[in-house]
Amino acid sequence: MKAFVTILFLLYHFLLLHQPSSSLPLCTDLRAPLISKTPLAFCPYNGSVCCDSAKDLQLQKQFHAMNISDSGCAALIKSILCAMCDQFSAQLFMVESGPREVPVLCSSTLLVNSSQSNRAASSFCSTVWDACQNVSILSSPFASSLQGSNVVPADSGSSKLNQLWQSKSVFCDAFGGSSYDGSICFDGEQVSLEKSETLVLPKGLCLEKIGNGSYLNMVAHPDGSNRAFFSNQAGKIWLATIPEQSSGGTLGLHVSRPFIDLTDRVFFDSSFGMMGMAFHPNFAHNGRFFASFNCDKIRTPGCSGRCACNTDANCDPSKLSSSNAAPPCRYHKVIAEFTANGTISKHSSEQRASPSEVRRIFTLGLPMAFNHGGQILFGPADGYLYVMVGDGAIRDDPYDFSQNKKSLLGKILRLDIDNLPSANDIGDLNLWGNYSVPQDNPFSEDKDLQPEIWALGLRNPWRCSFDSQRPLYFICADTGQDHYEEVDIITKGGNYGWHVYEGPFLFNPQQSPGGITLANSIHPIFPVLGYNHSDINKKEGSAAVSGGYFYRSSTDPCMFGSYLYADLYGSGFWAAAESPENSGNFTTARIPFSCAHDSPNNCSTIPGSSLPTLGYIYSFGEDNRRDIFILASSGVYRVVCPSRCNYTCSKENVTAISLPTHSSGKKLTNLHRVLCLSFFLSSMLYFVI
């Protein structure tokens, strides 16, 4: 049985690794599409588009300069140029593989396992060749082979396709492709996704309690093992061993022996502490890891840095009101680097790291002492460090920091910590620490932006994650103020509206001595998910969202593909299904939850209810097997097979075999997991084959 489980587990991960890297609607500059305020004059695109009027005019001029005499060919070339305006242009032009002038032209009559509507009765690439092969096209976009292609034109100086390329098949080898396994290709029309099979939301969330400690962060060990790091707000990090599903084991963590103890430099209070940690993707070899915490410059030597309220941000600290009876910028947000070199072991949870800082990566003085975010994580596709920063205010963002492009507050930052600057560069470039700025950050197109900024208009981003199957899906929960909690898909240069909007609703701050940004001056990206405060607590209306993960584990097959998130106050979980897949359109439902009767640690229940008493839901975690964990004030919980809580899942087969339950209770539970996994894998194999 153990060997069988191992084979299924390896097969599952093989299939995961071979899933397509599909992306949401995204433009070639990796920004989100915008709703055009005026119809495009040249390209026949409307609604959510990747072109403004200036880009539309540029494409029109490019088309006229080609001087195409044949009307049939001209219409096709125009459609190819205008594909740049499609809301899926990033995928059509395969921007992750390098720049190209021509979208991937559909060259197959079959759209295998595709989310794209099957409109093409014939190969569009062949249609282009047949109509244009003898037509002169000046400054032809087909004159050079695509980056990464082994196919090269016969005569790059010619203007006709049959002179540039030896044959239709060679031409389509260079520019064609099929819509396969979730990818898309251009068939002459605006991309339209096929309505995918409705993802049935789970009947309930089954949990087991594997730890009694209270933690704020969990990060899977980058070596791929069954270990993970846990940290608390006070400033300690532990390395723990995670037990096998349904083994009856608990979290292998020694409270008295932390991986590192930073409590001597972390300022710990209700809204302060160690708020995040991140481990370098190559941590198993270089030992580099990073802690995000707060310090008090009065109590802790070395706690100093520039105030986020400064002349560059058009802000005067002397005019700010004090918060928490503390002067502005007494408290700082710090990201510090540490090392575990010389102590790295593949199997031990006794690993320790030196508390001596290697370097300060980032230091930011906080003008106000409230919502300041603090999570940090590495992007799986680019390896850069993403830093979540709140607006700092208790309410209203009165100084409009979130919309101020020269302020780092209310933003998501993107830093390069592998190419470190010299001391002179830090001063000359006005940096906030030991990092460099990726050259493709949004400031490269918007010179008004501080170079570090990746996205803006956030109140207090609380728990972000990248989808393990689709690394371009960067999703963040952002806590609201009075009425609405939201979840956003974060894109390059995206403005998420605060404090002009709270969620999808216009917001009117009670106080705004720093001024307000007008709604018609921004292009906000509205949340893909959210809920009203009154949905949680109808009497008080209090709520605060905790962002989670796209569920990619085999454990609960009915949860697979859903985005799981919760409310801080422990009374609500939601599962959200995306349809069509890769569209960014979600349907969400609040789902019941309970604790497995055979949970390794006892789950206490709310008096008069069967619901487990979770307390506050601080955060979520994901291990290397893609199992999801809930970090609550009452302990650490793991999502397990739904049958363990008597929830029904049509994809889980748990009734095929009946075993004695006296001394083999755990074996029965293990069998449930095997059957659940095997049924799910057989379904995946069916669709793959």
From TrEMBL:
Protein name: Glucose/Sorbosone dehydrogenase domain-containing protein
Location relative to the cell: Cell membrane
Entry GO terms, CC: plasma membrane
Pfam families: GSDH
Family: Belongs to the PQQ oxidoreductase GdhB family.
Required cofactor names: pyrroloquinoline quinone
Transmembrane parts of this sequence: none
InterPro entries found in the cross-reference section: 6-blade_b-propeller_TolB-like, Glc/Sorbosone_DH, Quinoprot_gluc/sorb_DH_b-prop
Keywords tagged on the record: Cell membrane, Glycoprotein, Lipoprotein, Membrane, Oxidoreductase, PQQ, Signal
rRNA-binding keyword on record: no
Signal sequence, start to end: 1-23
Source species, domain of life: Eukaryota
Entries under SUPFAM superfamilies matching the protein: Soluble quinoprotein glucose dehydrogenase
Presence of the UniProt keyword Ribosomal protein in the record: no
Occurrences of domain Glucose/Sorbosone dehydrogenase (ranges): 227-566
Family annotation (PANTHER family): HEDGEHOG-INTERACTING PROTEIN, HIPL1 PROTEIN
Lipid bilayer topology: Lipid-anchor
GO molecular function per UniProt: oxidoreductase activity
